[in-house]
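User: Hey, my collaborator sent me this sequence without any context and asked if I could get a structure. I don't really work with proteins. Can you help?
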Amino acid sequence: SQAEYTAATHCDGRHKRVTLAAALKAGCHTVMGDLIGGDASGDVNLPSLLYVLDDISVEGNLELTSLAMPNLIHVGNDISVEDNPNLASLTMNSLKSAWGITVTYNDKLDTLTMPSLFCVDDLTVYPDPANCDLGPVYAGQDFNGFC
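Assistant: No problem. I've predicted the 3D structure and written it out in structure-token form, which is a compact way to encode the shape of the chain:
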């Protein structure tokens, strides 16, 4: 039924934050508030996720090795992926817009992929990953001149 579909795919983060693990388990299509790293570990893939209405914050997660949101289109506020020492790959192939994107101090980050990006007010990537695709609009244009 439509009610079951909505409940299973729209995850309410307005009064609490939704973790990566909870979003994966619920198969979230839309997070109504914040999406946070929580205790996710290993390779995390959120293929159902299309929209996050507030922030994505994945910070200080020691066990996360890759994060993929291949169908994510829009984030209402900021994306912050910082200080994840074992994160090797961050992929958001369909992401078109976010207020700001900060990807910093992920010591093992080798691959950053956001090829569809076309509307961001503030973009910071540091240090420069070996394989970086920010799409044709932002190639070489982040705050520090990387990628």
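In plain terms: The helical segments are 2-9, 20-26, 135-138. You can pass these tokens on to your collaborator as they are.
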